[in-house]
UniProtKB/TrEMBL annotation:
Keywords: Signal. This is Multiheme cytochrome. Residues 1-28 form the signal peptide. It comes from the Bacteria. It comes from Caballeronia humi.
Length: 160
């Protein structure tokens, strides 16, 4: 290959590698926000029925709508006193994602976000319905360290 073409090919490869690691980094960062830095009140009140979903996985508009409708929370009653609602709502808003311009995602579900669909595109629809998994919202069924806010692909085990 002529030298200038080799140089160009190298540049393209570098660019691809950089882009890939940048999006990795963005995810790793959003995961880190979620790990040990969670507001204790949020963990206390919002991790009884499912994991404490990382705040950086939903936009502000969705968190705020969730916090306004806790008595009708995805078929459950997750009501809290007004002061706790205010504190948790503020904290979630401050740590929310600005991806999609902060606009609400469908049903205010992490599992309906564009990035979630992209990351899970290779999971066949039959897998989500397994008795051991039940729902895409059940992150911990496959992400063995979800309770630590760690969604790294190295700790994914899909149960049979
Ligand atoms: C009484 C039980 C209960 C409590 C307490 C609770 N939730 Fe939930 N939550 C649910 C159920 C049930 C679902 C639906 C799960 C499913 O579809 O499999 C859900 C779903 C969610 C989802 C959407 C997950 C997805 O599909 O992407 C979010 C976000 C969420 N809860 C946030 C919160 C927040 C914030 C709090 C605290 C204010 C909270 N939850 C407290 C029961 C609860
Ligand atoms: C049926 C099992 C399953 C469930 C349930 C599940 N995931 Fe995943 N998740 C996967 C698989 C498989 C991958 C792709 C891993 C890979 O790239 O090798 C993945 C990838 C991811 C990634 C990207 C990780 C990386 O290192 O690039 C994130 C973030 C993530 N999931 C978050 C979640 C969240 C949040 C929930 C719950 C709301 C969830 N997942 C529920 C199986 C699951």
């Amino acid at each position: 290959m002529p030298l200038h073409l080799v140089a160009r090919a190298t540049k393209v490869c570098l660019l691809i590698a950089l882009t890939a690691s940048a999006s990795r980094l963005a995810l790793a960062e959003s995961n880190k926000t979620s790990a040990s830095n969670l507001m204790p009140l949020y963990v206390k009140e919002c991790a009884a029925c499912h994991i404490a979903y990382p705040p950086g996985m939903l936009p502000a508009a969705s968190w705020q709508r969730i916090m306004r409708n806790l008595s009708q929370h995805f078929g459950a009653d997750a009501s809290l006193d007004a002061e706790s609602v205010k504190q948790i709502s503020n904290w979630l808003t401050n740590h929310s994602t600005t991806e999609s311009g902060g606009q609400a995602v469908p049903e205010d579900r992490i599992t309906r976000s564009t990035w979630f669909r992209r990351e899970h595109a290779e999971v066949p629809s039959s897998v989500w319905k397994r008795a051991t998994i039940k729902s895409p919202s059940n992150c911990a069924a496959c992400h063995t360290r979800a309770d630590q806010g760690n969604f790294d692909e190295h700790f994914v085990r899909i149960p049979q």
